Amino acid sequence: MTGYLDDIRVDPSEIAAQEALYGPLTQSIRSLIDAAIRTEVDSEDIAGATAALTQVASLLRARQIDGSYGAQPSVTGVQRSWASPVIGVRNPIAPPLILEHEPDGRVWARFRLGAGYEGPPSLVHGGVSALILDHVLGEAVHASGHWGMTGTLTLRYRRPTPLNRPLRADARIDRVEGRKVYADGSISDERGITVEASGIFILPTGYAAAR
Ligand SMILES: CCCCCCCCCCCC(=O)SCCNC(=O)CCNC(=O)[C@H](O)C(C)(C)COP(=O)(O)OP(=O)(O)OC[C@H]1O[C@@H](n2cnc3c(N)ncnc32)[C@H](O)[C@@H]1OP(=O)(O)O
């Protein structure tokens, strides 16, 4: 939608109100995803649930934006990546991760992944780990005052990552070389690192640095 991002400058109190409104909706759908995977109710109840959900979808679609959500700015310049599949307040497929920022630039989050993120039985899908690490490393790059597209993301899956256990993601930048920012990170469970990542984030040709 032309000018959509430019036209919306939302007040912080309005952002808080929107978060209070959409957060519970998103959480309900997250719970629904888990329920859809694990339910064992009979076929009549599945048909009833399908009909009810079709109705809910048309209720929500009565008014909607044309394209994707984007990164909507607020009056304070805060970017709201609410559709992010990792941290999105409005994205039910986001676990979500609540990212913490340390003064030295490290970024981390504690989280758990349930049935919707399964790869091998009872273990986290490797692509989901990659998704999370891509985002957390990217966030560390952003927190350092740079930004860039992921050029290369290298992963080493050292041990299986368990579902339904406390997990932690960590990231930090290693160095900056011209338009390239090198970042490292990991996912850990209670026993230590399960996945290691290193990434090269590149400011695309013709773009200005963030700050
Ligand atoms: C709201 C806030 C949220 C903030 C937090 C947000 C976190 C979100 C994180 C999610 C990030 C994503 O998923 S991003 C989506 C996934 N990534 C993409 O789709 C990227 C697609 N690729 C591209 O757009 C492009 O190939 C770029 C931008 C990566 C590079 O293009 P370019 O700008 O033309 O680069 P170019 O001049 O050729 O090369 C520049 C330098 O980088 C090197 N280089 C080029 N490509 C690569 C590469 N893939 N991997 C390594 N190195 C490379 C070159 O050798 C050169 O090194 P030298 O000669 O200078 O030494």
Description of the structure:
- Its EC number is 3.1.2.2.
- Keywords: Apoptosis, Cell membrane, Cell projection, Cytoplasm, Fatty acid metabolism, Hydrolase, Lipid metabolism, Membrane, Transit peptide.
- Pfam families: 4HBT.
- This is Acyl-coenzyme A thioesterase THEM4.
- It is a peripheral membrane protein.
- The chain has a domain of 106 residues: Thiol Ester Dehydrase, Chain A (Roll).
- It has 211 residues and is an alpha+beta fold.
- The two termini are 27 Å apart.
- The N terminus is likely disordered.
- It has four helices and eight strands.
- The strands form two sheets. A six-stranded antiparallel β-sheet has the order 3-4-6-7-8-5, covered by helices on one side. It has a two-stranded antiparallel ribbon with strand order 1-2.
- The longest helix is centred in the N-terminal third of the chain and has 27 residues.
- The protein binds dodecyl-COA.
- The site of dodecyl-COA has 19 residues, from helix 4, strand 5 and strand 8.
Question: Can you tag this structure with a few keywords?
Answer:
binds dodecyl-COA; disordered N terminus; globular; Thiol Ester Dehydrase, Chain A; 211 residues; alpha+beta; cytoplasm; 25% strand
